[in-house]
Amino acid sequence: MPYVSIRLAGGPGPSNEQCEELIEGVTDLIATKLSKPREMVMVVIDDIEPTHYGVGGRSVRRMREEASS
């Protein structure tokens, strides 16, 4: 079973409609290019919140707040 994991960071996240379109498009791509049955393709979208990742010891949310003040 092909498993595709998409991780999006930076926000704002995709809308429900965009997620549906992304899942459909990636499924079509895998099914076509790898000759796999659509029913066997799993697509998972992780939308990572700015408070859930950071650089240099500071969350992205905090860096954005500091940059805007």
Task: List its traits.
69 residues; alpha+beta; Macrophage Migration Inhibitory Factor; two-stranded antiparallel ribbon; 2 helices; elongated
What's the quick description here?
The protein has two helices and four strands.
Structure description:
It is a single chain. With 69 residues, the chain is an alpha+beta fold. The chain has one domain (3-68): Macrophage Migration Inhibitory Factor, CATH 3.30.429.10. It is 39% helix and 26% strand. The chain contains two helices and four strands. It has helices at 16-33, 60-68, and strands at residues 3-9, 42-48, 54-55, 58-59. The strands form two sheets. A two-stranded parallel sheet has the order 1-2. Strand 1 (3-9), helix 1 (16-33) and strand 2 form a beta-alpha-beta unit. The radius of gyration is 16 Å and the shape is elongated.
What's the CATH topology name? Answer: Macrophage Migration Inhibitory Factor
Overall residue-averaged pLDDT value: 93
Q: Give the C-alpha Rg.
A: 16 Å
In quaternary terms, these chains amount to: single chain
Question: What does the largest sheet look like?
Answer: 2 strands, parallel
Please provide the ordered H/E string of secondary-structure elements: EHEEEH
- CATH homologous group name: Macrophage Migration Inhibitory Factor
Shape: elongated
* Sheet/helix structural class: alpha+beta
CATH class, anyone? Answer: Alpha Beta
Low-confidence spans: none
For the biggest β-sheet, the strand order reads: 1-2
CATH architecture: 2-Layer Sandwich
Share in β-strands: 25-35%
Query: Number of folding domains?
Result: 1
Helicity level, as a percent range?
25-40%
**What's the total helix number?**
2
